[in-house]
Every structure is written in structure tokens, then in C-alpha cells.
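Appendix C reproduces, verbatim, an entry submitted by the partner laboratory led by Prof. M.T., so that reviewers can inspect both the input and the predicted structure.
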Amino acid sequence: MQVTSLRVYPVKSMGGAPVTAVQVEPQGLAGDRRWCLVDESGEVVTARECHALLRLTAEVVDEDTIRITDRADRTADGSGAQGASILVDTPLGVGPVPISLSRLPFAAPADTDVSEWISARTGRSLRLVWQQDPSARAVSGAHGGEPGDVLSMADTGPLLLVSQASMARLDEWIGEESERSTPLDVGRFRANVVVDGDQPFDEDSWVGVRIGAVDFRITELCDRCVMTTLDPVTAEGGLEPIRTLARHRRWDGSTWFGTRLLPLLPGLPARPDGGGTLHVGDAVEVTTR
């Protein structure tokens, strides 16, 4: 089993960018989900409520900068420019503002022109904010966290892994129960790590996994929401895959696909062998922790 793709999502609920290698940090992949959007009252806004966020993509430029691009500005045939974009600098020295994200009551706002640019493209008054201290937000015990476990602005765990074998089985189910013949884009599940997998849904029973030289603990399976029914490129909605998942993968009142990982990193940053980095093509080994 091996890693087939890696993706970093700098801004919660925006599109992300594929990478061939990425550093693993205690809170997740370097640069992943350190930013999110809030409304005028500080309530976190995601693509569940504002589908237009999926038309925007974010990528890491360097450790102090990200770029947000509006895919809607590209030419109709896709051959033109990448689309209007804006560079966003880390808001160092800026006073934090209150936000509603669980276990993270404050975040630093981006420059006003950035928030205005995003608001104009989404049709909502939004403010972009940054998690200043990546160690400040604890993983909830209800979601598999232990003392000292931390995460970014992600929902409940530092990383999300999905399997292509499981995705292929889901596509088979959808094809059996509908007229759809085109496989769904695995990007609907917004995973950081995609592996080829052996048998569908083997990951349900994993306790731990080693990817390359990095060990992870499995904290929980991932319950899926309406965001998976939105096309990750067009933001158009539909019934799948939630309709089919509800028939085959529903228990405890939720539908399930993918698994959340927590890095086990003692000593890794100082290792000379690059053991704290994931690469496309890395071997994946199931472990007992």
C-alpha cells in the first residue's frame, strides 16, 4: 500500500493544492487549515453554508504567505490565466479577534483588503482569520484526543486519510443504484492523504499506520456531511455520495468515509533523515499504534 496523493488546504472550506511532499507537524500538515472565514459576529463560515467558497483555492507560497485564487475568473475553456488571485501575508503583530471555533476563542485577522476581496467573490461579508499558535487548540477527548494532542482549524483531527479502494467500492454502489457512470472525484472528501488501499474499508479497523517514516494514531472514523455532495470544482450540489453512503455506511446516526490521523512525532523535527516529511509514493504500513 502506498500514498497516491497529498493535498494541503490552507484555508478551511476553500479548495486546496496538491503537493508531492509536505512536512508533518503536531497539528497536521505544514500550512494546512491555519486559516478560516468568519462572519461579522465571529461565527465560523464554511462551504456548508457558503458554497461559493469552493470556487476559491488556496495554496502555500512560503511559510509566511498563501495565495488565494478565484477559479471562476478563468477562461471558459480552461486555457487562459489561472484566475484572479491575491497574496495573503501572515498577520504578525496584529491583535486577535474573537471567533466561534471550538477550543480556539481568538484568531488574528488578515488585512482588510483580503477580506474585502473574498467577500466580493462569495457575496457574503466575511473576514479571513489565522491561527497564531498551532499548539493552542486541543483535540477533543470525544474525538479520540489525548492530553497534549493538538490540531489546526480542521474539524476534529489533524489529518484525514481516504482509500482509493474504498472510493472504488463507493462508486460501484452508486453505479448499481443509479444511472451515474462517471466516478466521483475523491476530492469531495477533502482528504490530506489518499492511499491506494488493499480491500475496501480496511481502514475502518486500523489502530495506527506508518506512512514513510512517520507514525500516526487513528483517532476516529470520519462522519460525512452535505459538503461531500458539492462538486469540488463547480460547487454544484446533488444527492451523492451521501444518499448511497447512508444505505451502506450508516450507523450511530451518521454516515462514514475515511479516517482521521494524529501524528506521533517525538524527536522527529531534529532527525537528519527527513522522517517528518510525507511524500507521494511513500509506503503505508498498518501498525498496532
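Residues 166 and 200 are 4 Å apart (CA to CA). Additional entries are available on request from the coordinating office.
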